[in-house]
């Protein structure tokens, strides 16, 4: 594999500074989903933690570094999950956290950012305007800007999910931290142990999770296909991946607020080109069908971004027939009324 | 503490035979619930596994013992969760599993028992009739009867939840398995470490979870108050606990199907008298309000039994004001239409 910005040793080190409440999340086969999808499906559940998304992994890395030797004030733009996670991680370490978000963001996310004691500033525009405003605040106030997916800590935090996906590869009782990469590769070769899954489906937004988990797969389990999934209504990064250069869009139109960016970051795209095997776009109705399947057959309430993997299978059953996919259920912060409107059986 | 039928060393041993997919479940503070409840609330989430309830812990113990040196055929009565879990655990070990259930049981639970390859027999009556029928089958066919809460393995499996609740008590890196009881007690005394919670709320049905988790608390963290919660519509065990002898009821009337027994088992009551600090009854509307709070503020779909702890706080806010409760969210197997009918925002 060519060099991405990521590194397995750093990812293992990141794992050691993350609060355990975000680690070792459930990974389980969900057979009730399988008749409807035509393939084996395992869920990696990133919602059962204090901020209900995977973003705490990255903000723990960011905040622990800042608490050690950085400025005590920090700002980020967020569709809601990063901001909530940074507010949580910052509060525990006495950091002063500012979050900039679109005033159209999910209300539950904004409420929880405020409840965690962060300063919340709303912009009258979309997430890209929030990014600009956050950068301005950082510049004017001289505080640390956390840029999701660009800042390596956010990718390394997300990448720890990948290490946990591979735990089944490892001999019992031997921790990821204690296993050298070479040893692991050798062991895998010797025993012929295959991972119990052959495909990982990753929601694609800014790219932190896709490049992070993708890097781990390509480094430690290169046989696993890494497929990124984005909504047709917010296709910038996927189009960029296919054309191998940054493609921006003028607007987004999707309920999957967590992945609705318009301006991919070049360095992140470069990494994604090295670790993703494919990037696919899915329709809104497939996202909703995926959310409904996760409710009906897995008793899981998820936000739209977390249903992208299931949506990808629904849109291309032939491709996945007979395979074993892991889908990362990455967040569950929804406005319940909106959620009920999407999936509601009672109308 | 007087002797219950349980034993910490056996519970630790049980933990070693349980498939890891059921262990180390999420335990996290859920602050979004707290303004509505007036106390600190942590969730121990037992739903993110292949059978979506805590029952897999017990059936793993049962099935691993049977696979080693027992009969290869087994029968149990179940409201649905035990049967599903026994079907899962038995399938993995080549056991022949029969489940007897009421024909009024939750459809989703029955479907999943069948899907896991167990033989399902329905009786035209309630759970107590299913218990009688399962005992008859065991007698006539000479196969092993698994009796929930009476069979120690079911209590020991559930008790492993208690060990995990106490992990925060233990020094980092030291595993429960490696810590002797005396050492742990000494360490706790020396460091003055208090558990980060002072109350555990446990759904009370047959009593496996209440006696199991209660035993662990009384043995290793006697300062934690153990409160059992049962629906007013199925109060037999709670009434028995208060009167210190078995009290049966003629019928049950509750949506909390998982805990709707009428005939407490004397040996289980004896244990419960030794480990529970209180047993309370809650109204159906409080159970529904609890389910709705878990959906609105924790993005969790739960079955009614799993909302009993929240219901208990809702019914007696003064008692819990300022305290830190852990509530075990013990199952999420619901018929989605019924669930939507209970909690639905859209009607």
Can you describe what's shown?
2 copies of one chain form a homodimer. By secondary structure, chain A is an alpha/beta fold. The first copy, chain A, has 2 domains: about 10-55 and about 150-345, Rossmann fold; about 55-145, Rossmann fold. The first copy, chain A, has 15 helices and 10 strands. Chain A has helices at about 10-15, 35, 55-70, 80-90, 105-115, 125-140, 150-165, 180-190, 210-220, 235-245, 265-275, 285-300, 310-315, 315-320, 335-345, and strands at about 25-30, 40-45, 75, 95-100, 120-125, 145, 200-205, 225-230, 280, 325-330. Chain A has a 6-stranded mixed β-sheet with strand order 1-2-10-7-8-9. In chain A, strands 5-4-3-6 form a 4-stranded parallel β-sheet, sandwiched between helices. In chain A, strand 7 (about 200-205), helix 9 and strand 8 form a beta-alpha-beta unit. In chain A, helix 3 (about 55-70) packs across helix 7 (about 150-165), helix 4 (about 80-90) packs parallel to helix 5 (about 105-115) and helix 12 (about 285-300) packs across helix 13 (about 310-315). The termini of chain A are far apart. The interface of A and B includes residues 25 and 48 of A. Chains A, B: InterPro entries: Ser/Thr_Dehydratase (IPR050147), TrpB-like_PALP (IPR001926), TrpB-like_PALP_sf (IPR036052). Chains A, B: This is Pyridoxal-phosphate dependent enzyme. Chains A, B: Its cofactor is pyridoxal 5'-phosphate. Chains A, B: Keywords: Lyase, Pyridoxal phosphate.
